[in-house]
Amino acid sequence: MIWDVLTGFEPALLVAFIAAGLLLNITPGADFVFVSASGMRGGPRMGMAAALGVNLGIVVHVTMAAAGLSAILLARPALYDVIRYAGAAYLLWLAVQAWRHADDVQEARAAQSLLRAVRRGFLTNVLNPKTALFIFAFIPQFTDPAIGPLWAQIVVLGAIFTVFGFAFSLCLGAAAGGFAHVLRARAGLLNRVAGVMFAGLAARLIWD
Questions:
Q1: 17 with 160: CB under 8 angstroms?
Q2: What is the Cα–Cα distance from 87 to 124, expressed in whole angstroms?
Q3: 156 assigned to some structural domain
Q4: Which domain holds residue 116?
Q5: How many C-alpha atoms does 128 have within 13 Å on its Cβ side?
Q6: Is 87 helix (H, G, I), strand (E, B) or coil?
Q7: Which of 9-13, 177-181, 186-190 has the highest mean pLDDT?
């Protein structure tokens, strides 16, 4: 069924979908800032690990969209707010941790393992209900009832979106880490920058 759905899409539609997805990934947002900050703080591998975590979160949102669960967030504003505030609190915790260890160069270099970076990226993405709502609103625009079941189309398009987004975020994390390597002597400054970025994301999540 999945293969039938994939081959049922018009090539021009898939190209337009991929282009739109890449454009949205390039536009700075919560995931963009988180991957960049992680790479700046811990180097290329840490940035790429954060990218992996973020995209694992996107897989969860795509699965929710395919199951129709994201509609619940639209119907229940109170649940949306609970998740939104939980995400903001987590980002504030990251900001405090980055600022506390700003002057400890060794801590700045090894404050988090690669596994922890993956986990933080995952939680940062999953605890952002705007990601779920965006995916739920964006992907269905490219579906066609004549091709097959809606859930199968969302799974296929979501997989494409995730693959290309993952490739971009991996490059972003590696590039940010490369700059961090050049500025390794300024680890304290990078940690403070990361802290400010995380705090800014929390504020944006609350007040947007």
A1: yes
A2: 7
A3: yes
A4: 32-207
A5: 25
A6: helix
A7: 9-13
